[in-house]
Design brief:
Elements (H helix, E strand, L loop, with lengths): L17 E5 L5 E6 H10 L3 E6 L6 E5 L1 H18 L5 E6 L5 H16 L3 E7 L8 H14 L4 E10 L2 E8 L1
Parallel strand pairs: 1-4, 5-6
Antiparallel strand pairs: 1-2, 3-4, 6-8, 7-8
C-alpha cells in the first residue's frame, strides 16, 4: 500500500466522477467530468488540485501543484517562526541574602519577564535555616510584592523538602 499523502488530491488521485472546476485565472468553469477537467489542466500545463473535497460536487482548481505546496510550506514555516516558546527560568535564593545580591536577582527576574518567560523562585534552606522557614517565606512575599506590576503569581510559595518554591508568570 503506498504511503498516504497528507496534501490535497491531485490529477488522477481525484476519485469523484464530476467536479466543479475553477481555472488558473480564478474563473468558474462549471461542473464537468473529472477526465475532461484533467485534460483541461494538462492543456494549460498545470495540475488539477482538489481544494474542497467535501463539497457537492468537489471543487477543483487548475494550478501549479508544486508552487502551491511550496507556498503552503513557507506559510507553515512563517507561523512556526512567530511562535514564542515560554521557558521557565529559575532564580535561587537563600534566606540570608544581602540587599545588593537581592537587587541583582530582581534585575535578572525583570529581564526574564520582559522576554516573556516564567520564573521559578527557589528558596534553599540549609542546616539551622530549616528552623526559620518563615524568614524564607517573608523573602518570597517581598519578591511577590516587588514584581506585583510586571508579574502574577502562578504557584504560591510552598515547602518541598528543604526548599520553598514559587512560580511567577509575566502579566
Amino acid at each position: 500500500m503506498p504511503p498516504k499523502d497528507d496534501g490535497p488530491r491531485v490529477n488522477d488521485a481525484i476519485t469523484s466522477n464530476t467536479v466543479l472546476v475553477i481555472d488558473d485565472e480564478g474563473e468558474k468553469r462549471g461542473v464537468m467530468k473529472t477526465e475532461a477537467a484533467i485534460a483541461l489542466a494538462e492543456e494549460a500545463g498545470l495540475d488539477l488540485v482538489e481544494v474542497s473535497p467535501n463539497a457537492e460536487p468537489p471543487v477543483c482548481k487548475i494550478m501549479d501543484y508544486g508552487k502551491y505546496k511550496y507556498q503552503a510550506q513557507k506559510k507553515a514555516a512563517e507561523a512556526r517562526k512567530k511562535q514564542k516558546v515560554i521557558e521557565v527560568k529559575e532564580i535561587k535564593l537563600r534566606p540570608g541574602i544581602d540587599t545588593h545580591d537581592y537587587d541583582v536577582k530582581m534585575r535578572a527576574m525583570k529581564r526574564f519577564f520582559d522576554e516573556g518567560d516564567k520564573v521559578k523562585v527557589t528558596m534553599r534552606f540549609r542546616g539551622r535555616e530549616m528552623a526559620h522557614t518563615e524568614l524564607g517565606f517573608d523573602l518570597l512575599q517581598k519578591v511577590k510584592a516587588d514584581t506585583e506590576e510586571i508579574a502574577k503569581v502562578e504557584f504560591e510559595p510552598k515547602m518541598e523538602g528543604r526548599q520553598m518554591i514559587m512560580i511567577l508568570a509575566p502579566r
